[in-house]
Amino acid sequence: MSNNDIEFNPPGGFPHEPGMGEAKEDPQAIAQAMQRKKKVAFNRVVLESSTQLLSSVYQLIKTSQIHDLNNQAFRKPLEAFCQEINTLPGEDEFNTTFVEDNVYVNDTRLRTDITNFLSIRNLGKELQIRGIGGVAFRKGIAPDELKTFIQAFVKLDQKLDSPIEALRAQMEQLNIQHIGVESFRAMSEGETTLKKGDRSKMAMKTYFTAISSYKTIMKNIQHNKLDDARKAKKIVQNLVDLCSEEGVSFTGLATIKNFDEYTYNHSVNVCILSIAFGQKLGLSKKQLCDLGAAALFHDIGKVEISLDVLNKVGKFTDQEWAMMQSHPVLGVKALLRMKGFSESTIYRILVAFQHHIGLDGSGYPNRRSPKPIHFYTKIVSICDTFDAMTTARVYQKAMTPDEALRLMSKTVHKRYDPLLLKAFINTIGVYPVGTLVQLSSQEIAVVIETHQDSALMRHPKVKVAVNIHGQYLNPPRVVDLSERNADGSFKISIVKSLDPKDFRINIPHYVLGT
Amino acid sequence: MDDRTIRSLFERQPEKSVPDTEELAEGALTTEDQEKVRLAREVFAILVKTFKSFRIYQANNELLVRFQKDLEVKMQEFFQRFEDLELRVRTDTISLLGQPIYRPQDLNDNLAHDLFRDGLRRITFHTGLPPEELLGFLDVLKRTSDRTLEQDYDLITLFWEKDFKYITYHAVEELLPEGIDPKEVEQHAEEQIDRITTMNFYSEEDDSVYVEPEFGASVDEKRQDIFDNAAPSEETILKSQLVSTFHALETEEIRHIRREIESEKTEDLLLDVADTILEIIYTEHSFEDFEMLMGSLEQILAMYIALPDLDRAAETLKRLHFLAEGFRQTSAKATAVVEAIIDRSGTEERIAPLFSGLGSGSRISPTSLGNFLVHLGPSSIPLIGRTLSETTDNDMRKNLCDVLVLMGRRYFDKVMEALGEKNERDIRNKIYILTRIGDEKSVGFFRKLLQHQNAAIRQVVVSSLVHFYNPVTRDFLIQTLNDNDPAVRISVLKSLGQTKDLKVLEAILPLVREARFHERPLQEKRVFFSTLASLGGNPLCPSLGAILSRQSLKDKDKDDEVRICAAEALGQIGSPDAVKFLKEGLAIKRKAIAKTCEEQLHLIAERLKDVQ
């Protein structure tokens, strides 16, 4: 299997691939696309059970280190695993590959969430320390064959020059025919860059199209053209598809800020952060779509507030402040005026009305009989505040992402759900994508990717933008801060975050550019 | 993840109904392909048949279940022979290998047309398609064809949400909202992407201007200090960072979040939306907005009724009544709007479906229905009245009666009008309801019923009339003491006994003294005397004593009955005077009378003991 297969086989395709009318269809391309779909369809079925299967493999490895291999605690899951593999529909193989933080099953990237992430990550580590990058289980596998493999795997001497070769030799000797192992291979920088470049461009295109569409919808609402609910949903569906493909790195899009069109950019950014957060929490596709749409429309009431008030530098007059505080109510009214009423509308209304109400009932608008804050509102409130704090406005300087998180943590019990804020930080990391940092090497770098493992949260992947002499690097250099010295200490650490303005760094360039 | 591989950024051009240019002569296909097309036609014929049943019948309908089974079998047959079933969708045709496998004439009932209209161009059913996905597919078709989709849904969105794993598709869609130029969007996006990908830092002069980077260019002198200090220790770094206070989520915390996600119910949220709208209404100054908000509340209420979720519908109605009450003092206009919504929610069109499936096996509990109906406006009363007349379910009947009682207190005339009198059951319902409403306008109805041919009805009416006790109804009741049925007369006596009205005493004492009183049955005589005792009390003792001691020469047995009843009445009064007369009675030669006196004295003594 090549890595190309992994990267360029997104099940949903690129959401903004230009449309094909009937006249433009190329039969050969269509045939290829349909062939690809066929494979994808199978993969999606396998993916359903994949997280469970991978967790089972990890549990079997762990159990084999504690119990005798004839113990029921080992035997039962062993048999269940084999049965599951042997009854998988379609193709003959369950092929798992670990590439950096990502895991692929039969060439399709597996989505992990907070409930299954740990066991899958640990399995990856067990494989990696033995120099193994992937394992394939084939149909016909018997419990005794799997038991023999696990025995050999666990006893494998990790200090050997090539443990995987030793394991392969043993497997041949032990006549293990339905299991295969593949070498561990870190993706080269060139490969990463090339693929990420294409993906980033596609993602940015989706992002800017979403902004243009949202801006038009807002303007249409202003002019009482009210039938855009379906279009809005499609914008969000595209973003959900994108998030499924990109994982947490999808939040990198939210580093794009626009001073002039703050409300539109901010709404799309909050939508992006909310979808990524929701995905990490394990929400279904439909739930992500509802959450994303609610996030997109959370500030819709601002459409009726003049820009003079929205962008005012000085202190608000009482009247202006009342106007600002009315935007949740104006938002609900605008949403109610849009044609139709669906389940999605419910979430949009609740989020638009509640997103400035604190967990303790503080904030606005005033209510006669306070109700509990909806789960989606809690998510959107966190993402809303985070994006607002990290965006420069005429009246405020942008905070660095980690500063914003620190400040939010201080007021957490009053304003936000503490557990969700914690989960949010787990999602985007303590140094979220787009944070400008000074390294212990004295260099200045931009965080471009966070590790899903919370133990490595302080050690993301960065692009060094300025060297120790204070000179800009072009092109910037990618460094993974999770790399360690022989004694186990990290080679380079983050010293502190910095304000990109001080260094004139255009953050999205580093996060999204090639 | 769906397989919507191709989605247009641009407005979809109107599709022309052109002939399928790919359509080939069947003879151009290989024998194998011809066989494939033939089998696909069979699959689609069953699919269409199943779909038609799916639109009409409930999920457990025998016919539908059979069709579904047939469809599964036929699809399996196809998959086994030819693997995936890849179809192309045209304006009015579905084809395979250029051969139409489905092409009905009627565009109004044409699946291909429905699919094409929403942008679907190709669809593939993959080998292994499980029954639940097939069912999901039928559901999508049903919602699309029946045009029951909510505003922000279309076929492709439904496919996307269903997240099918064995059904993939290819669609063209319009994604951009009205009033936007796709070319401009594309160009704007390209410009923005270009700026991001090529420019990595800002100009020193102007924040908004990006400049090309040059290798070796240095950062602002003011910030050079950052490179002068020695690197801090790991410990110092940790102390200054958020990470020092941050921990990964625990398993229990993850479970807690999952529980919160899973515990949510859309129906509850709708009520939260209603409350949100109410919060806004309380502070609303614009009447136009007020009406719009009220319209949304009406929609929510209609949704609950249609579901039917009557508990929540009742909750919404309660809120509307509360709102109307609040406006009553301040705005007649607003009150009228709220009341109109309450009334519209009870129109026959809206609530008739609730009554159509009532009875055993109904998903609507009589209690929930009752709790809901009671909050409706007068427009609901005629249908409730008719349903009451027709129902044979006792629980339902009781609930509907209670509903009409409560509604009758607000809308008496409407209820009165809605209640039929076609049969005895109707009349009993009406008596029950009007009695509990307690409106004096019902008296005429009751009086009329005192002439009813069925004594049982007359008997019930008597018990009811006492609830409207006044000089007029008293006269009706006293007149009824001449009813030809003793059970009715006994009812009247018992009812009158509760009134403590001395006028009643004045009316019935002469009756006792009449010679023909002896002719009344013993039970009635007893009730007569018991009524006299409870109304007259001690002052009546001499009269009773006289009856006890008086001996008639005519019918001694009948006379004894009257004297025994007098003794029992004295025992009921139990006063010292009554005791005196009873003691005198001990000497009466007629044994049965003397014995009754003795028993009554004993009972009085026992009562006294209890009191002490």
Brief rundown of the structure:
Chain A is an alpha+beta fold. Chain A is built from 20 helices and ten strands.
Helical content class of chain B: 55-70%
Q: Which descriptor suits the 3D outline of chain B?
A: elongated
Largest interface: A-B, 136 and 115 residues
Major β-sheet profile of chain B: 5 strands, antiparallel
The helix-strand sequence of chain A is: HHHEEEHEHHEHHHHHHHHHHHHEEEEEHH
Helix content of chain A: 40-55%
Integer average pLDDT of chain A: 81
Task: Write up what this structure looks like.
Chain A has 514 residues and is α+β, with helices and mostly antiparallel strands. In chain A, the strands form two sheets. In chain A, strands 3-2-1-4-5 form a five-stranded antiparallel β-sheet. Chain A has a five-stranded antiparallel β-sheet with strand order 9-8-7-6-10. Helix content of chain A is 51%, strand content 11%. Chain A has helices spanning 3-7, 27-66, 72-86, 117-128, 143-155, 163-173, 189-222, 229-246, 262-280, 285-296, 307-310, 318-325, 327-337, 343-354, 375-389, 401-410, 412-415, 418-428, 500-503, 507-512, and strands at 93-99, 102-105, 108-109, 132-138, 179-183, 436-439, 444-449, 461-466, 472-480, 494-498. Chain B has 612 residues and is mainly alpha-helical. A five-stranded antiparallel β-sheet of chain B has the order 3-2-1-4-5. A two-stranded antiparallel ribbon of chain B has the order 6-7. In chain B, 60% of the residues lie in helices and 4% in strands. Chain B has helices spanning 31-56, 62-82, 111-117, 131-145, 155-162, 182-198, 234-239, 251-262, 266-282, 287-306, 310-328, 332-344, 348-356, 366-373, 381-390, 394-408, 412-418, 424-437, 443-449, 455-465, 471-479, 486-497, 502-513, 522-536, 541-549, 556-573, 576-585, 591-611; strands at 85-89, 94-96, 99-102, 120-125, 167-171, 201-202, 210-211. At the A-B interface, α2, α7, α8, α10 and α13 of A face β4, α5, β5, α6 and β6 of B.
